[in-house]
Fold this protein.
Amino acid sequence: MTVCFNWSEKSLTQSLFNTLEGERSPQYLIDKIVETQAKFAQYQWQQSSGCDTVVLYHSDSFCFALRLLALTMLGKTVVLPANGQLDTLTDLTRQYPHFCGEAPCPTFSNIDDCDGGQIPQEHVPLQWPTRGELVFFTSGSSGDAKQIRKSWRQINLELAQLQQQFSISSRSSLYAGVSHQHIYGLLFRLLWPLQQGAFIDFVTYKYPEHLAKKLVGKKQVTFISSPAQLSRLVADNVVASSGCQLDLIVSSGGPLGDQDAIDLAQQFGLAITQVYGSTETGGIAYRKVDSLVPAPWTPFDDIDVARDPTTQCLLLTSPYLNNECVLLDDKIRLEAGGGFSLLGRADRTIKLEEKRLDLDAMEHRLVSHDMVEQVRLHLIAGSRMTLCAAIVLSEHGVNELQQQGKRALNEQLKQYLLGHFERVCLPRKWRYIDQLPYNLQGKLIHKELESLFE
């Protein structure tokens, strides 16, 4: 696949300008990017060591975009934390001490706090990024965050694939209910429309009522969403009646139930485009479900999928992975016509509200607390996935339970986890037991574990 960019300062400025519906001038946008570059130059001059890698976090998508473009145009490697929690950023800045954006702690050495001085007359051309890397983090099997590096060559290949498959233009309008901080939101709601000069509404719409009002009368609309958001729409779909003309609704980050997909297709008059992939692999396949016969997943162009005969897991060959054959943890069944069906995961990584969570990582974190001796996390499937925690307390934990009660102990452990995990990922049910239900062979008895939460 050939990727050709013909970006200039004018086209980039116009693309950013489109996102603000004319509220600010193109020159303002140029100045903000150049200002960030000037701040970085001043900050780098003040440092005694090199500054080729920068941690970037900002909850505001527009502010994030300006900083990302400014840094990547300078060829810097930009590190994107999984979330903006204090402990997450603190741990990360021990490894990468240079930070830019919205800091939860005033002691952070923040490029945003640097006085850039006089903005230089000559600056780095505002061109589409091709140098440097983006660094993402996702759960690893060891309990520690796993670092995923993406070159701009890989990013640009995937953006070209999105445009080839789904096609948007400068007349398109993109709205989103997902964050830009993770790779799905970064690609779909930010980089892809920016590259094509489309209109972007930088507001993250968490409530469908707000989105419905915004979309009235709009045409050529693409909505970047998540399975959790879409599933909640089924019972009361206020967006479908807003009068907007939706061209594309994208769902990724986790599975969307087939019945929910069918109901939504009927309500919108448009089947949801589901995208399957991960931070490590990039996009793998897509599908649309609008009938009781589940549609198989169709691999993107240049993506090869096979089934490992031993594990029944997916063997992936992708240009985003330098065309190396990689064994994934998802079990599949190959279908006629080159598609495949997903049959579940082979490891303990799950999705809660589209947030990827490694159960081993959370268990590792809980056991490091002085009140916890052992822990086992368990997922209950239903209309909503519920994460449960069975915990054997230490002597200190038992004393705390007796003195403070179960509710207070639950809250202490939740606050402890919030330093590393987002609230939506925390267990909803807690049980404190004398011992975990293992049999004589040392295997966990899952039925007994499940019975604790009935």
